[in-house]
Each structure stands twice: as C-alpha cells, then as structure tokens.
TrEMBL record:
Matching Gene3D superfamilies: 3.40.50.2300
Organism lineage: unclassified sequences, metagenomes, ecological metagenomes
InterPro entries (UniProt xref): Peripla_BP_I (IPR028082)
Protein name: Uncharacterized protein
Length: 70
C-alpha cells in the first residue's frame, strides 16, 4: 500500500524533528501510526474505529480508500 508507506514516511520525518506541535499541550508530541484492515466491511470498520478510539486512544483518524481495476 503506497498510502501506508507514505504515512509512515511522513511520521518518520515529523518525528525526526521532534513530532507535531499540539497547541493544547504547548509541546511537540511524536506521531504513531496504528492501522487495521477492515477487509472492506462496514461492520468490521465500525468495530475497528471503536477500538482505535476506546482502546488505542488515537487522536486523529485517517481513512484510506482505494480500489483495484483488473
């Protein structure tokens, strides 16, 4: 997945400069990429989004959409 590789590259670059500045915290914090495969299932995606928020305590959700044309 080129999108995932791009996110990892971006996080690496941001983290090499101390992270992203969060105004509410008045400091830079590191970026951590957490990803799951929803297998193109709305039910699975809903469950995983809930897990990301309630278990992983993520602050930002990014969804990547793509499809293949054979």
């Amino acid at each position: 997945m080129p999108e995932y590789a791009g996110l990892k590259f971006w996080a690496s670059k941001v983290n090499s400069q101390g992270g992203v500045y969060v105004t509410a915290l008045r400091k830079k914090v590191p970026i951590k990429i957490v990803s799951y495969n929803d297998q193109s299932s709305a039910t699975t995606a809903t469950s995983l989004y809930t897990q990301l928020i309630k278990v992983n305590h993520v602050n930002i959700l990014v969804a990547v959409f793509w499809f293949s044309i054979d």
